[in-house]
Design goal:
Blueprint (H helix, E strand, L loop, with lengths): L14 H21 L4 H42 L13 H7 L4 H14 L3 H7 L11
Helix pairs in contact: 1-2, 2-3, 3-5
Length: about 140
């Protein structure tokens, strides 16, 4: 299926949700122990619960790192595609706005960058304004 605004959404699990689930699991495991339901599967359950926050925080780290790489990619792309000096406009945008611009085709990038700076478009508004979607198939 071709990527578009409607199909590209990336929804990482927030770290606090993994922490809450871990805490609930730990409380239930303590309840099992208190009731005397000590089994081998409970030990495995505790092991899995102990690594859940690590997995969630690792996912958060990967997403933040990828956003930094996309910002660098956009600086290089704007320097190549836009007239000299226009790439400096990226500095007035937030990291999330710059990341949202990556979906714009080379032909519409300059106009959309100008509009994003002038109208202070949100990342969602920037993505919706893209006419010719440039898919990002490498997002982790």
């Amino acid at each position: 299926m071709p990527q578009s605004y409607a199909s590209h959404a990336h929804h990482p699990v927030p770290t606090y949700i993994a922490g809450v689930l871990w805490l609930l699991g730990l409380l239930s495991l303590l309840g099992w122990s208190w009731l005397g339901w000590q089994t081998f599967s409970a030990g495995i359950y505790l092991l899995l619960l102990s690594i859940a926050p690590l997995i969630a925080s690792g996912r958060s780290y990967v997403t933040r790192l990828q956003d930094r790489i996309i910002q660098l990619e956009m600086k290089v792309r704007c320097a190549e595609v836009l007239p000299a000096g226009d790439d400096a406009k990226l500095r007035s945008l937030t990291p999330k706005q710059v990341v949202a611009l990556r979906f714009a085709s080379d032909e519409e990038l300059g106009a959309l960058l100008d509009r994003a700076v002038r109208e202070r478009l949100s990342p969602g508004d920037i993505k919706q304004a893209v006419q010719h979607w440039r898919a990002d198939e490498l997002r982790a």
